[in-house]
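Page 42, continued from yesterday. The earlier attempt failed because a stray header line got pasted into the input along with the sequence. Redoing it now with the clean sequence only.
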Amino acid sequence: MKVLIIPDVHLKPWIFDQAEDIMREKDFDRAVFIGDLVDDWNRQNDAGLYEETLKRAVEFAKNHPDMLWCYGNHDLAYLWDIYDHPGFSDDAKDIVCEYFNILEDTLESPENIAILHRIDNVLFSHAGLVKGFVDDYLDDIRDGIDAVIDTVNGFDQNELWDDISPVWARPQYRNGFENMYPPEFFQVVRHTPVPWVLKQGNLLTTDTFSTASDGRPIGTNEFSWVDTMTREGGPIE
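This time it went through. Structure tokens are written below.
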């Protein structure tokens, strides 16, 4: 299956317009969003932009109800009342929670929005499933990937508000990509901004749309793709 990866949006509703064009013009079977619809530098007082972004996400979901959505750490901060993020908006917190409920109702199944998804030989999450997290929280079921996924998707902030969790890990640093779990699966993540779509071993990092605190782009604003059977993937040309 050929999958379009939709990047961290961070209050950039135009990303969904571009994704719609790509889905229409290219031969993709499905789309996967990898988390962080909300928050951006110095936009916490712009509740209207939060609503515009979330409304556009729901519109995209209506057009593609079979797509998968991953929660990001910024999304979960609102759903779990953890208000410790740069850019967190007190003005928009009720809007965010309301629209995530609408988004869930719009999808083909409530299970289409979760922490961790698997399609064939590929795992999708905001930050990645690493061996250290499995060692700490999932050791007794580590040999069954579907059981691991189900268990992770049932976790709350007690397990997931951890630097090595699938919403917080940064395996791109210090060769951490060598400790992705299980090693035979390919993983697609975002969370860590990169200057271009970055492939390290069995890890594809795709956050090329984030900006620095002064608004300067960090990456190339490229969308990316993955083939879930062959595990090939990279930027969309």
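Notes: Helices lie at 14-25, 47-63, 73-79, 93-106, 131-137, 145-154, 157-160.
Reminder to self: strip header lines before submitting.
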